[in-house]
C-alpha cells in the first residue's frame, strides 16, 4: 500500500500533477522530500495547511501518515 499526496489549487500547478503516491509511513520530512523543492517551499509557509485522512492538522510538522492514508496539501483560501 501507499500514501497518496493530493495537490490542490496552485500547488497542483507548481507540482505539475494532481496526485503522487509514496511508500508509507510518511512524516513531515518525508513529505517535503517527496513533493520536490518548489512545493516544499510553499508547504513551509504558515498559510498552507496539510490534512491527513480527512483531518486538517493543527501542527503540520506532526504529520504521520500510514499506508492507505491520503495527505491533502491545502493552499491558502482567498475570498471576496
Automatic annotation (TrEMBL):
InterPro entries: Beta-grasp_dom_sf (IPR012675), Mopterin_synth/thiamin_S_b (IPR016155), ThiS/MoaD-like (IPR003749). It comes from the Bacteria. The lineage of its organism: Bacteria, Pseudomonadati, Pseudomonadota, Alphaproteobacteria, Sphingomonadales. Pfam families: ThiS. This is MoaD/ThiS family protein.
Amino acid at each position: 500500500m501507499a500514501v497518496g499526496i493530493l495537490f490542490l489549487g496552485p500547488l497542483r500547478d507548481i507540482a505539475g500533477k494532481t496526485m503522487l503516491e509514496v511508500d508509507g509511513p510518511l512524516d513531515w520530512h518525508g513529505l517535503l522530500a517527496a513533493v520536490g523543492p518548489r512545493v516544499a517551499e510553499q508547504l513551509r509557509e504558515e498559510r498552507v495547511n496539510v490534512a491527513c485522512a480527512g483531518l486538517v492538522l493543527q501542527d503540520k510538522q506532526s504529520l504521520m501518515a500510514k499506508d492507505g492514508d491520503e495527505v491533502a496539501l491545502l493552499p491558502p483560501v482567498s475570498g471576496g
